[in-house]
User: Fold these one by one.
Assistant:
Number 1:
Amino acid sequence: SQQGEEDPQALSIQEGENATMNCSYKTSINNLQWYRQNSGRGLVHLILIRSNEREKHSGRLRVTLDTSKKSSSLLITASRAADTASYFCATDLFRNSGNTPLVFGKGTRLSVIA
Amino acid sequence: GAGVSQSPRYKVAKRGQDVALRCDPISGHVSLFWYQQALGQGPEFLTYFQNEAQLDKSGLPSDRFFAERPEGSVSTLKIQRTQQEDSAVYLCASSLNDRAQYFGPGTRLTVT
């Protein structure tokens, strides 16, 4: 079963616009990660936010985390055609101190139209 | 440096055949993970290793699935007597200590 659920399932925007994707999860977490997957390729790690952080930035990416609502959002500013991909949030399967497998949502398919 | 590599990239198997999927992790990464990704879904955990030790295999769908990492580097996922429901993309990822996982391109398995 999948822990996270992204919303919307699909999003289509014009180049230059901002894209916001949301993720909700079910159980307490240590951290939450966002990954991108281009068509036919593996996943690429974008950003990790810890449970004691509320916001984090990386280039054109901004991630927020609200542990009281068990939700996170990923904002991509000034989108480009190259941002077209599926975006997944992921949380730890096991809450221990080491590396654990991840539980992924179903993803948001983002299409950026030039 | 080189990323995670997987081979073959594509595999077509007839139902009932055995297949072996290989993963070469990033050198020095102690953790290695296998995921299965169905079309339109997120990856789902199968099994993972820390060095050569298989720490958890609770995600393997049946006893036809077997994974190993005998020397703590390369890993092989074997599926015996493949069934049509095994058709999926199999992703391998490795990780050091920072929790970020680095994924290979995957092996797309089609069982006919």
Number 2:
Amino acid sequence: DIQMTQSPSSVSASVGDRVTITCRASQGISSWLAWYQQKPGKAPKLLIYAASSLQSGVPSRFSGSGSGTDFTLTISSLQPEDFATYYCQQANSFPSFGQGTKLEIK
Amino acid sequence: EVQLVESGGGLVQPGGSLRLSCAASGFTFSSYEMNWVRQAPGKGLEWVSYISSSGSTIYYADSVKGRFTISRDNAKNSLYLQMNSLRAEDTAVYYCARVHHQGVGLDYWGQGTLVTVSS
């Protein structure tokens, strides 16, 4: 099974900050990676698919990069509605998710 | 508008059974692969099961293999999860989710249905 490890587990930031979340796969997954945002009590929302493709309707301040084993999600200028938990997910084999990164207001 | 609506959750005793349903609308259900994903209270996301668009290919997480059965009825635009021999650790919100047409990512999710396994 492919293990996904996110870092950090939590991060505090302010509106307007640039934030980067990393995700590492236990083996190469090419670009078979997605990123999600989840707010309390809500279903996850797809932000990025195929490592770097922006899902329709998602603001352009979100971007993804990487391939192989190392990936990043970047939010270029945090907005109040971005404070949430973020998950990566590999789709190279049976899907698996990272443990999540909680983005909190500083 | 794409919609996925789960139902069938509730309180069940350990060892019991439950059948979840997911009603799909707003897209050609028979053309899309589907998954069940769960989230235990206060925990992260865990993939449970996958089914291909035709239903011919099915996969399960090791944690549910032999106990859960995924199925679909394309004529009824519905996805199902039959859960048997339920354990306390199966307590979670269960989501149905559609696979993105490019095969990477789950682009639409239902609102989730809570399954609680407790005596």
